[in-house]
Amino acid sequence: MATAFWSVNVIQHPRCERPSIASRKPSSAFLGSTLKLRFNPPSRSNFGFSETLRKSSPISAISDVFEEKKQKSASSSSSLLITKEEGLEVYEDMVLGRCFEDMCAQMYYRGKMFGFVHLYNGQEAVSTGFIKLLKKEDCVVSTYRDHVHALSKGVPAREVMSELFGKTTGCCRGQGGSMHMFSKEHNVLGGFAFIGEGIPVATGAAFTSKYRKEALNEADCDHVTLAFFGDGTCNNGQFYECLNMAALWKLPIVFVVENNLWAIGMSHLRSTSDPEIWKKGPAFGMPGVHVDGMDVLKVREVAKEAIGRARRGEGPTLVECETYRFRGHSLADPDELRDPTEKAHYAARDPITALKKYMIENNLAKEGEFKAIDKKIDEIVEDSVEFADESPQPSRSQLLENVFADPKGFGIGPDGRYRCEDPKFTEGTAHV
Amino acid sequence: MAATFQVLGAATGLFFSGSFDPQRLHLPSIRSVSERRTGFLVVRSDGHIVSSWNFPARRTQQFITSSIATKANEAASATTSKPGHELLLFEALREGLEEEMERDPCVCVMGEDVGHYGGSYKVTKGLAEKYGDLRVLDTPIAENSFTGMGIGAAMTGLRPVVEGMNMGFLLLAFNQISNNCGMLHYTSGGQFKIPIVIRGPGGVGRQLGAEHSQRLESYFQSIPGIQMVACSTPYNAKGLMKAAIRSENPVILFEHVLLYNLKERIPDEEYVLSLEEAEMVRPGEHVTILTYSRMRYHVMQAAKTLVNKGYDPEVIDIRSLKPFDLYTIGSSVKKTHRVLIVEECMRTGGIGASLTAAITENFHDHLDAPIMCLSSQDVPTPYAGTLENWTVVQPAQIVTAVEQLCQ
């Protein structure tokens, strides 16, 4: 597996050659765990999933199952993986993500946004595949690569762009920035700069959902939380601690690993003793699934099952999405370490082109409809830039607001009054 | 029923019985506190004490003039409050917690051994039987993650009380406390509030060894966005616990391992104390002694000796470690002109160091002598009893310091 353990320049990624994974024959499939004590396989599942998988053991069989289906569906229109409306919605969301991120790069180099900006190009299938299946009340927790997660969840492009420009109309009033996208309305719980930090927060949101259902007796509360994070995070303690707690209490959460093989310049193979992350799920008593993250239809199928499990109260799932980022780690990363062959391999599997091809081949939509969507998205993104440009910078009075939910937390001043009553406080000129 | 409420001074806070007469609210200022228009509590006409959390503070609401820094014997009108009940500090904490859990079903507890075991210091004893395993959650040993989980739960509507079995263990949760607890309200532009309470026993115990004898208040004090309070008596333990749970801000409540068995008689009526106020323990004229948590008792012991020697120390339990109650402290400094800080924190970068800076900055003109600060030695607490005693401040040192200060 990790044959290229010591080589730096030319990293033969095993996934470039499919056979090496298929030959591994891992023992657990989607239904995962060998632990009989805690884990209950779902009693029903879509598409005869469990049947197929019990018969053919390799986990990558999921991808094979889809290849089969796709080939079948090419011939018979009755077993399409997606309807036209869904397909166009998914296409639009992915194009929005791609276009927005490209615009971010432009704006960054023009000096309109600053700091660390991490772009999501290439990974759109994961965000769209999962988040488009959620309800508004479901929560999403992400990392610093969070623009597209926020957009998929429904945060308007205008608000995200404004936030990136640091304007007061941004979703976090300009106080968060690229790495801290929050939205109470759309239940985006961040946006975290340190990796792994968001996973416990996601576990907490899932805990609230279970609490609402069982302690507050809101019987119909079935909110699900998705936690997105990368391959580098999977070596971090918080990941393991939360896998344990989520499985222990059967929290309604899905852990989505966006394995793009690189943690800045550290190859996943050089930092991880067992690079197959999905295997870590069954170790904690939850199913571990590996899916081709460059194919939005496959991601969507797995997501449906995982989210369904969580909603039914059957507990968490660990989903490893094999994906790739077309750009560097951040806009400050020259991206010189990655092998051009590897990049080309994944560029050929661009999720947007793949979906378009599938839909055209299956007569779900015509070229013209895609062009119309492309144009619409261009306009949305242009408009968001205009809006952000024209928005005001935060005024001084914003400096001291929001430090505390209850500003009495600033304490009592020497004159006996709460310091938040001092007019300098509202002006932002007080010293705290 | 006679409607009364009693303002007894900061030492006891407020309590009321039955219904009350709103006319009584506009008490003439006890001292020249008329400019102090904000109170920390709002008493609604149905007798419930509710905190007013709106920003900016609305002047149209009725405020009780806050009970700060009055002489203890200025106990105003006679009260019809019942005699109260006696209990130990850990029971007071439990009572406060239980009352809040009863009042608000979103209040829940998380921590190691808080459920079936009842808490390593019995603060949560009996709660799991009453409220169930989900509301009193026994967590695995993963401080960073379950504190983070508490933060996520707080962001999505619950009001968790996270217990660190020993405050020192919360060092493992520093990532979550600093990055998420303190900051998320701000970085989210005010969208998410984090009404979490993080509590646990800290401080130097009886030969517990260095790692179990840590004082984390100095490490946490720089984190923006959190409040820190330290309780020292059963009365203020219950009041601060309730206030912390009701607060919309993240609050860290420091308890002390050696104080859990203190006994005191506390009122039967419900009361909530202010998180931002200090407590006047003993009014005096000659010197201001500022202290908190266990050192309060060493100070009071030293005070007996000092009184016999003819000194009149004013002792203030600062209670609110972040932010400091500059009004109570300042009023005292302006009266006595001499300050001694006695704390259990380390010398370097401790609460005393910050307090010294704050007093110097604000009240420099009123000082007749440099501020003296007695803190624990910058030494990992040794196991041996004799050595341990020498690392913390003892009453004899306090007496000497006051004598020196008052020369």
Automatic annotation (TrEMBL), chain A:
Alphabetically ordered keywords of this record: Oxidoreductase, Pyruvate, Thiamine pyrophosphate
InterPro entries referenced in this protein's UniProt entry, alphabetically: DH_E1, PDH_E1_Alpha_Subunit, Pyrv_DH_E1_asu_subgrp-y, THDP-binding
Enzyme class: oxidoreductase
Positions of the Dehydrogenase E1 component domain: 93-395
SUPFAM superfamilies, sorted: Thiamin diphosphate-binding fold (THDP-binding)
Gene3D superfamilies in the record: 3.40.50.970
GO molecular function: pyruvate dehydrogenase (acetyl-transferring) activity
Reaction(s) this enzyme catalyzes, per UniProt: N(6)-[(R)-lipoyl]-L-lysyl-[protein] + pyruvate + H(+) = N(6)-[(R)-S(8)-acetyldihydrolipoyl]-L-lysyl-[protein] + CO2
Pfam families recorded: E1_dh (PF00676)
Statement: the UniProt record of this protein carries the keyword Oxidoreductase: yes
Cofactor: thiamine diphosphate
Keyword Cell inner membrane on entry: no
Swiss-Prot/TrEMBL GO biological process terms: pyruvate decarboxylation to acetyl-CoA
EC number: 1.2.4.1
Subunit structure: Tetramer of 2 alpha and 2 beta subunits.
Known role: The pyruvate dehydrogenase complex catalyzes the overall conversion of pyruvate to acetyl-CoA and CO(2). It contains multiple copies of three enzymatic components: pyruvate dehydrogenase (E1), dihydrolipoamide acetyltransferase (E2) and lipoamide dehydrogenase (E3).
Name of the protein: Pyruvate dehydrogenase E1 component subunit alpha
Protein's organism: Trapa incisa
UniProtKB/TrEMBL annotation, chain B:
EC number: 1.2.4.1
Alphabetically ordered keywords of this record: Chloroplast, Metal-binding, Oxidoreductase, Plastid, Potassium, Pyruvate, Thiamine pyrophosphate, Transit peptide
Positions of the Transketolase-like pyrimidine-binding domain: 87-262
Source organism superkingdom: Eukaryota
Role according to the record: The pyruvate dehydrogenase complex catalyzes the overall conversion of pyruvate to acetyl-CoA and CO(2). It contains multiple copies of three enzymatic components: pyruvate dehydrogenase (E1), dihydrolipoamide acetyltransferase (E2) and lipoamide dehydrogenase (E3).
NCBIfam families found in the cross-reference section: PRK09212.1
Binding partners and assembly: Tetramer of 2 alpha and 2 beta subunits.
Name recorded for this polypeptide: pyruvate dehydrogenase (acetyl-transferring)
The organism of origin for this protein: Trapa incisa
